[in-house]
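Each letter names a residue; the fold follows as tokens. Both lines appear below:
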Amino acid sequence: MVGLELIPIGTILAVLTSQVVRTANAAKDVLIDKESFNILSKHLLDIAPVLKELQLQELNESQAARVALESLESDVKQASNLVEKYRNSGRFYLLMKCRYIVKEVEQVIRDIGRSLAALSLANTEVLSRISDQVNRLQSEMQRAEFEASQSQLDIVDKLNHGIKEQKLDQAFVNDMLEEIARAVGVPVEPSEISKEIASIRWEKEEAANRKERAEVIFLEQIILLLSQADTASDFEEVKKQYFQRVQVIERYGSREKYIPPLNSFCCSITEAVMVDPVSLCTGTTCERSAIEVWFDDGNMTDPKTKEVLEDTTLRSNIRLRESIVEWRELNCCFRIKSIRENLLSNSGLLLHESLSQMQALIKENSINKDWISIGELTDIIISILGNSDSIDVKMKILITLKGAVEGHARNKEKVVESQGWRYIISCLHNDSRVIKEVVDLLYELLQDRSGWNKSFCEKLSEHPSTVNYLVTILNGPVSDSIETAEKILTELFEIDEENICCAAKFGWYKALVDRMIQGSKTFFSSSSLLR
């Protein structure tokens, strides 16, 4: 408090008591790490009667008493600021910071405990009636020790590992986001996820204003990773970004197929185009992983100039990274344009080459899965699948489609809702090599993050030839497809028990026998097997 020495002790105590109670009540509203904030709230509420006791008694007008009060007021204010900061933060952000938050709460409780001890010493006689209570309270507070829950730490460690290893595959990102959302009670819906990511962006801007560079880099990496999840990306924005890049490449000549990288895009150590560029104090830019290995090997010089480095701090070069990402996206659009032209050329050689290029694009990053769909490559190869008699072509298309839909809900829905569903199912009645690829693709299409996609399973069940084809596989020689085919068929039995009868008619009786042993009255009353 400003001018504390000019304010009567009684007034100081009244204001401080009110602030303590207000902070205690606010602490209960923090959404994550509730245990530590609830303990903070409890300790603050326990302090309130002590302050009220001091108001009722004649408090020593000593310098020591005023200094102790000033210290306590400062610590309670710090607790209040801490509570307000995290009470208004997003849940995702709170989880990311859980390890630090509990330590901040621990420290502020200890500080308040020390200030309470000093206040008690300065007013021993006044507090004699409740001295045992005060001593116990300040002792407990000074020994406060917290840890974030192991489940929270496991999620944060997994996330940090994914960032470090640059795990950008769609399945990992989707699972990671769902795990985080489930841990903090946020629905896995695009609108809710967008709010959480927007909250992290706001925290990043605040950290930038405070010039906390390490925090900015950390939050930026979190945003970059989580934004790639299906439920985090606005498909309209993805399409808009794609067509913006297409407009740029259309300005180039018709013969242009590739934009070469600028020299600044290449690492000074590996000479490869960088993914996570960082700058040294000398201005030299390197790939983060490469310069870390350089330092680990005992090198303390600039890899480009050989100058001895006085400071080995790595500074993320955000603008350069954004430029590299844009360069990659423009070249991706060039590749999609070229693949499209080759697929439509009716050239067998170009077809195989184009499918290989599609597979490479799919493996590079998750956004390419959306872009090949927006660029109509998925539609084109589905059409070719339905019209080609080549075993090799069918196999390669099925493998490519599996890569395109793997862990990607939008692409799965597009394939299932298109004529591709019919073409894929018809491939079940084909060469054994094709059968394996089509069964694997069907299994992937039927999965979502929670298990079997019931809606897609119902669509598959409605196709008149599905059960017949699957039973043929189970009774046939293609052993590496039998297990997966049986899993699909078993799920179709759960969708519609009539499929059990259908399977028996085609010579596969296992499911029917199982139901007979179970004695399902409902099944036998509705069964049409013997009709």
Q: What stands out?
A: Strands lie at 277-279, 285-287, 315-316, 447-448, 451-452. The first helix runs from residue 9 to 27.
